Automatic annotation (TrEMBL):
Subcellular location: Cytoplasm
Binding site for substrate: W49, Y142, K272, G305, R389
Reaction equations catalysed: (8S)-8-amino-7-oxononanoate + S-adenosyl-L-methionine = S-adenosyl-4-methylsulfanyl-2-oxobutanoate + (7R,8S)-7,8-diammoniononanoate
Family: Belongs to the class-III pyridoxal-phosphate-dependent aminotransferase family. BioA subfamily.
Site (Participates in the substrate recognition with KAPA and in a stacking interaction with the adenine ring of SAM): Y14
Required cofactor(s): pyridoxal 5'-phosphate
Annotated keywords: Aminotransferase, Biotin biosynthesis, Cytoplasm, Pyridoxal phosphate, S-adenosyl-L-methionine, Transferase
Chief location of this protein within or outside the cell: cytoplasm
UniProt-recorded Gene Ontology molecular function terms: adenosylmethionine-8-amino-7-oxononanoate transaminase activity
Protein name: Adenosylmethionine-8-amino-7-oxononanoate aminotransferase
List of residues that carry N6-(pyridoxal phosphate)lysine: K272
Length: 434
């Protein structure tokens, strides 16, 4: 494998082309294992950015894509439809929270968020309230890399701060403070409530990652907060957008994180695990009321239409993945993973460089006292036979649900060992004062 060509010419995510991070060449994958071009095998702890929940090369997913490819690999969705999209739509409406009835397919999670934001704005246009066009969200969130999505990511500590003067100015409240299983009080949501009370005439929607803030910091918060937020959105006539791109399909121990609070959002964004990691696909679901409002807007139609919308290959993979999910033993798998993560990461709490260890469902996090040297960490993990990609101050895993207890033990052991290494944190840079 020509890794030198890759280093010189191929741009990887969140990486400099002048000083690129190292990459490993993968030749094949199956189950929870990645096979490298040098013959090594790594246990995958990230499910390829949280998407491959059934593991790699699952026979049912491969067969579904192969069958669909032989019949219809792609056709435009404008004016045409196909069985793969219809089957997937039925499966999604059966699985997602009650009250969601319309499905818009897109290419990626970021686009699903863009779609939800545009839907919310067009809805209020249709209801004669075009002044409701702002978004309200909480600090510490992450919703994607495209421009509307960036506008609702954390404007200060988020990875898109350098674009702050270019993106739409949105409203931000403090992040939820109460942990998942800690008592919730009204003070936790007071700032958000104040913003809604003062600004609701200009707010189209609140967008939030339910229960688990993902790439913004992997923080868990109380279901009571989500219940209170749903009530506030109803009270002040503001739509609620649930970004479940990271949390959907079992990751937190429920099929969808909204279920922890027993609420249904007005709009729901899905992606990542939707196809079981086979192909890129996302979906934005909404209620009848939202669809009706968009139909009443000046445009009369929803103004969005990706070229590869409802791609048959991706839809077929997604239907197969949802069938595995519906019939499988994911709840027992995630429950086992949660228990084993708690046991396996417990020793990290005593490390002087560690400030927090937290687990929810199939998510395990070690938060460090400073920024992690990613290149150093990736090399250290690969040397221990595992694939873990830290970011910021976080060493985390979100493994495939099919991971064995032995494989998970290897992951958690490596996490604790690497967290203890002297070189794991970036050296502090002291500013020069001349």
């Amino acid at each position: 494998m020509d890794l030198e060509f890759d280093r010189q010419h191929l741009w990887h995510p969140y990486t400099s082309m002048t000083n690129p991070l190292p990459v490993l060449g993968v030749t094949s994958a199956s189950g929870c294992r990645l096979r490298l071009d040098d013959g090594r095998e790594l246990i995958d702890g990230t499910s390829s950015w949280w998407s491959a929940i059934h593991g790699y090369s699952h026979q049912a997913l491969v067969a579904a894509v192969q069958k669909q490819a032989a019949q219809l690999s792609h056709v435009m969705f404008g004016g045409l439809t196909h069985e793969a999209a219809i089957d997937l739509g039925k499966a999604l409406l059966k699985l997602t929270p009650a009250g969601l009835s319309r499905v818009f397919f897109a290419d990626s999670g970021s686009v699903a968020v863009e779609v939800a934001i545009k839907m919310a704005i067009q809805y209020w246009q249709g209801r004669g309230k075009a002044g409701k066009h702002k978004l309200l969200t909480v600090l510490g969130g992450y919703h994607g890399d495209t421009f509307a999505a960036m506008s609702v990511c954390d404007p200060n500590a988020g990875m898109h701060g350098m674009f702050g003067h270019l993106v739409a100015k949105q409203l931000f409240a403090s992040a939820p403070r109460a942990g998942f299983d800690r008592p919730f009080c009204d003070d936790d949501i007071r700032e958000l409530k104040t913003l809604l009370e003062r600004e609701h005439d200009s707010i189209a929607a609140v967008i939030i990652e339910p229960i688990l803030q993902g790439a913004g910091g992997l923080r868990f918060y109380s279901p009571d907060y989500l219940r209170a937020l749903r009530a506030l959105c109803d009270q002040y006539q503001v739509l609620l957008i649930a970004d479940e791109i990271a949390t959907g399909f079992g990751r937190t121990g429920k099929a969808f994180a909204c279920e922890h609070a027993g609420i249904t959002p007005d709009l729901l964004c899905l992606g990542k695990a939707l196809t079981g990691g086979m192909l890129s696909l996302a979906a934005t679901l909404c209620s009848d009321e939202v669809a009706a409002g968009i139909g009443d807007s000046p445009a009369g139609v929803f103004m969005h239409g990706p070229t590869f919308m409802a791609n048959p290959l991706a839809c077929a993979a997604a239907s197969a993945s949802l069938e595995l999910f519906a019939k499988g033993d994911w709840q027992a798998q995630v429950s086992r993973i949660e228990a084993e993560l708690k046991r396996g990461l417990d020793d990290a709490s005593a490390l002087p460089q560690v400030v927090d260890v937290r687990v929810l469902g199939a998510v395990g996090v070690i938060e460090m006292a400073g920024s992690i040297d990613t290149a150093f960490a990736m090399h250290a993990f690969a040397a221990r036979g595992v694939w873990v990609r830290p970011f910021g101050r976080l060493i985390y895993v979100m493994p495939p649900y099919c991971i064995s207890s032995a494989e998970l033990a290897a992951l958690t052991r490596a996490m604790v060992e690497v967290a203890a290494l002297d070189g794991i944190l970036k050296a502090e840079v002291t500013p020069s004062h001349g």
